[in-house]
Write a structure and sequence with these properties.
With 199 residues, this protein is mainly beta. It has helices at 64-71, 186-198; strands at residues 4-8, 14-21, 25-31, 35-41, 44-55, 83-93, 98-107, 110-126, 129-130, 133-134, 138-150, 161-162, 166-167, 169-183. The chain has an 8-stranded antiparallel beta barrel. A two-stranded antiparallel sheet has the order 9-10.
Length: 199
């Protein structure tokens, strides 16, 4: 089979992170509207390539003061580094629906090699609405990816101490990424779909 090209549907692709707070609980945050591309040959998934970009300034934890602190130079430094990127091309198939994807994650202008554990959730033909018209069906595929990073590796090193040598924010951060990818039909097929819809 030929290489297929997919684009992330931003409204349904996002990242969630969590870090320990005050040594006892977790604080969670979200980064929505992820942009991305996936190129994969279904017969050779180990040759797949993925790119993703997210707007760090849109971080949301449910508490405005905390969100502002995360945007500051203490953590994300969005004034100087507004976006995070990931480019992955090292794919290892673990099972029928499980993969390890290794690539370069760039946060705060610092790039580190990171491996995501990826679960393929399947695919489905769905409607595709543009300007009030259904131009579908369009094929969608779902993925969930997980990793753990050390925030100090990316220069997000702010902290404070609490009783008995504890810290306010843990070094290790768990990251979960949800992706809804849409198959790019190519210009010829897209034109045919538009003509059929207009007829």
């Amino acid at each position: 089979m030929a290489v297929t090209k997919w684009f992330f549907e931003p409204g349904h692709s996002s990242a969630e992170f969590r870090a320990r707070h005050m040594m006892i609980t977790y604080v969670r945050g979200q980064l929505k509207n992820m942009q991305g591309l996936l190129e994969v040959d279904p017969d050779e998934p180990e040759k797949a390539r993925v790119e993703a970009t997210i707007d760090a300034a849109k971080v949301y934890t449910g508490q405005p003061q905390r969100d502002d602190h995360l945007r500051s130079a203490d953590f994300f430094d969005v004034e100087h580094h507004p976006t995070w990127t990931f480019t992955g091309s090292g794919v290892r198939q673990v099972s029928a629906n499980e993969f390890e994807v290794t690539g370069d994650l760039t946060v705060r202008g610092v790039t580190r090699s990171v491996t995501f554990e990826v679960t393929y959730l399947g695919q489905w033909d769905t409607p595709w609405w543009e300007d009030g018209r259904d131009l579908g069906p369009r094929r969608r595929a779902g993925f969930i990816a997980r990793t753990r990073i050390n925030r100090h590796d990316f220069g997000a090193s702010w902290n404070d101490v609490v009783d008995r040598g504890g810290v306010v924010v843990s070094a290790m951060v768990d990251v979960v990424v949800d992706v809804e990818a849409v198959l790019d039909p190519g210009p010829e097929e897209q034109s045919q779909q538009s003509q059929q819809s207009a007829a």
